[in-house]
Every structure is written in C-alpha cells, then in structure tokens.
Amino acid sequence: MAQENFLVILPYAIAFLLFTATLVSYRVIFGPTLADRAVALNTATTKAVVIIAMLSLLYDAPYLLDVSIVLLMVNAVGGLIIAKYMEVRA
Q: What is the pTM of this model?
C-alpha cells in the first residue's frame, strides 16, 4: 500500500527536480564567476543522479542505479578537478 502511494508521487517529484534543474542551468550558462558555474554544474549533475535513481524505481530497472552511481563518481572527480583549476588560477 505504501509503495503504491510512493509510485504515484514519484512522477511529480521527477517533474519538480527537472524544473529546478532548468533553473540551475541558467546559472551554469550565465553565472558571473567560474565558482558560480562550478557549483551550479555540480548541483545540476546531482539532480540528474537523483532523477535517474527515481526513474530506476519507477520503471523497475535496477541497471539505471549503476548509471547513476557512475555519474555521481564522475561528478565528484569533476568537482575536484574544477576546484584544483580554480586554486591554480587564483
């Protein structure tokens, strides 16, 4: 019973995350500084990971969790690379 309620709410949660990711993409494109763009890109990628994980639950596709884990690792390494670049640049 509780799982059925969860699956009903899940598409609305995905739609909300897509909307907020769209708002964050504005900061990625028009961010005034490189730091703003880096944080916004990290946030957008994290939202994409959560969306993929939710789609995995919605469509009962566990292989999508592997995709989200790999994207999360790439996001973490990418954030470190950008931080190191900004440290050298400053």
A: 0.88
